[in-house]
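> Could you send the Resolvase/invertase-type recombinase catalytic domain-containing protein prediction when you get a chance?

Sure thing. Input:
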Amino acid sequence: MKQISIARVAAADRRVRVGRYTLVDPGGDPADRLAETHTLVRRHGWQAPITTFDSTGMTDPAIRPQIARLYGAICRKEIDGIVAVSRIDISAFHSVYGDTLAAIRSRGGFLALVRSETTL
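Output:
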């Protein structure tokens, strides 16, 4: 499903725009994880007008302010999707991860992970 969403956006006559995102513990440094997202963005030739992180630790994505910011950017067509390092940036819980993917897709966006969904 993710590949279809990315292909749909890539088929448009413009570059894919994404928001780079990571989650860290309170007081944590997001630099290394955001650098990993930058590598994926560069490899695909995407644009990343938004780079952000939440420092809330493993909380529900529905209450994270920067995830909300990215949802809004997808709705306003400012970005096409979100790039994160791994599913842990979204949630370690399968149902919450699935709900978040559904929320991103329902807004017309996609989630691209640097690592496979089974790699932390």
